[in-house]
Amino acid sequence: MNLTTPLVLNANRHPDKMCVTCEGRTYSYQQFNEEVNKLANGLIQLGLKHGEKIGLFMKNSDHFVIALYAIWKAGGVVVPINFRLVAPEVAYILEQSECKMVFCDAGLEDITANADNGHNSLEHIIVQQEAKLHGHLSWASILSDDCSEPRMVVLNTDNAQILYTSGTTGRPKGALFDHQRVMNVNMNFLVMKSMAADDVFLHLAPLFHSAQLNGFFTTAIYLGASSVIHRDFDPVSTLEAIEEYGITVFFGVPAMYNAILQVQGKQYNLSSVRVCGYGAAPMAPALVERAVELFGTDQFYNLCGLTEAGPGGVFLAPEDHKTKLGAGGKAMFLTNVRVVTDDMENVKPGEVGEFVIKGETIMKEYYRRPEETQRAFSDGWLLTGDMATVDEDGFITIVDRKKDMIISGGENVYSVEVEQVLNSHPQILEAATIGLPDEKWGETVVGIIVSKENLTLNEEEVKNFCSERLAAYKIPKKFIYTEVLPRNASGKILKYQLREEIK
């Protein structure tokens, strides 16, 4: 069994059921499977060989997911690429992953062409609409008339995808997964969130992101559920889609929930929503509470993992939100987790250590990065680089990235703790904290704040607000106000960029 087997089975079980809809284009399971087969057979005729890599440099769309499953059926390995990247960054990924072909949106054709620098293995650029540049192929031109199942044997042990890390520092690394590892992620999410075939999924986050791709979209196909895909995130469109399609399941990063909560005016019928997932970045408890109130369901799940784990890691179940809100949670299914010292010994409750993971969803390796792969593991445990604590009940809480921890006057300051306090202030939309060099203290805590629209913050009042909730050494000594915080595609704040801009 491989990742495409559930699609074939569901096309046979309920061929007329809605599989995917996007921008007015709707496919039943039978129609979706046939479109996948036509493209897969076309790729084989074009010369794709088993195990070769194909890039997906596209925004969310029905074409993205058709190409995804077609590449797998043709025996290829999918390399999703962040559509926000510029030509040199795309060129690096195409070359490092050894892509033979790449699919791109029409609006990204120029970037793709500039990334084809002649130093990589790229043979074909396939444009979703009509190609405007010489030598590029259009999607329609490679489609086969044959909609039968491709004659390609694909095993669960065959490589399926290379997911590039967010790249908050340095060059992104490609995490390699086979079909079985991704199907294990499907099982994790299916069991963890009690999802079912009659669910209707709304896909808002980028599909090149591991949580949206493996945790939600391929899981929806695995179940035989229905999917509504949005090309871009818009809070009003999100609320409208929930009402129109009777959405039952969706996942969002904290910034998405925050934007949705800012929508004023029309009241939307959100009663269909059953399950909400949040993650990819810390979400302030106050924001979670407001989201729970808006959607009227207590089925909220905090997902705390990383790309290299499939994603996998820990999750906070709905029943634990009342007593453990703010924690990451306990281990996902098929996953072991620990918080350890530098010597890989378990920390005591309340102590800070490194969050490590072992399980059936973990990547095989960093593709063509043997030394980094070796450094990423210790006796089979994936070293995440996240600092965490574990309480007496076994709940793990991420407190910071190793690289983002601030040491001020010899005391450790964990930016997540400070940010949660700042984000609970009624006049603050969102905030970040960083450490900057200081002759006296080594580092000084700096708060970067985005205030809510048309509100002016009183800095002294903010400091007083913090002093009631934080020890004095944790309170930012300086505040900087900005209109937006820089983020990567996963929703994580780019603190290295803030440090570069402010220092």
Number of helices: 16
Shape, per Cα inertia axes: globular
| Count of discrete domains | 3
Given this structure, which CATH class of the largest domain is correct? Alpha Beta
- Radius of gyration of CA atoms, rounded to a whole number: 23 Å
The main sheet comes to: 9 strands, mixed
Question: What CATH architecture of the largest domain would you give?
Answer: 3-Layer(aba) Sandwich
Structural class per helix/strand content?
alpha/beta
CATH superfamily of the largest domain: ANL, N-terminal domain
Strand content of the residues, in percent?
25-35%
Distance from first to last alpha carbon: 53 Å
The average pLDDT score comes to 93
CATH fold topology of the largest domain: Rossmann fold
Strand order of the largest sheet: 2-1-11-10-12-13-14-15-16
By DSSP, the count of extended strands is 27
Helical content band: 25-40%
Protein name: Long-chain fatty acid--CoA ligase
Keywords: Ligase
Domain AMP-dependent synthetase/ligase: 10-367
Pfam family, one: AMP-binding
Task: Provide an overview of this structure.
This protein has 503 residues and is an alpha/beta fold. The protein folds into three domains: 5-154, Rossmann fold (3-Layer(aba) Sandwich); 183-401, 3-Layer(aba) Sandwich (Rossmann fold), CATH 3.40.50; 405-502, 2-Layer Sandwich (GMP Synthetase, Chain A, domain 3). It has 16 helices and 27 strands. It has a nine-stranded mixed sheet with strand order 2-1-11-10-12-13-14-15-16, with helices on both faces. Helix 7 (179-193) crosses helix 8 (210-223) and helix 10 crosses helix 11. The protein is globular and about 70 Å long. The model has no long low-confidence stretch (mean pLDDT 93).
